[in-house]
Amino acid sequence: MVSYSSTLPKDLLVPRTFTQLMGIYERNYERLMRLLGDPSELEPSQSLELPGLPPLSIEVKARSRYTLELVLGHRFDDQRLPDLLVRLYHDARLVEAVAADARRFPSRPLARLPGHWQANMLLYKWLEYCEAGSVSPPPCTATA
Known about the structure:
The chain has one domain. The chain has two helices and six strands, in the order αβββββαβ. The protein has helices at residues 18-36, 113-132; strands spanning 45-48, 56-63, 67-76, 79-89, 94-99, 141-142. The longest helix is centred in the C-terminal third of the chain and has 20 residues, at 113-132.
């Protein structure tokens, strides 16, 4: 049984340490891999149907040997929210939120620890929300 707390600590979004941020990156990687499966099999544009949630839009922005950049968000008509640009580090098994508004600021990285902390906590909680909506994730479907 999964239980959720209705209250969060007041300092949840207050940056703590670099080590804790790396722990969030690790947990985000684990959660994202459970949702997406093998990242090498992702199409350039896909949607993932999660029971009881809006479709999850997945757009591959860049691939390299050690990294994969994705834009993620739920699809609401013509909007994608939260519209996060994330970078997966395959070798380190980490996922980092790089930009919190991928459409408006595709190349503007989060420059300071507070920005990184907030965006990665958003990713952390949002992936937790997505994961709770899907106990056994269905396969992704490619979209045009």
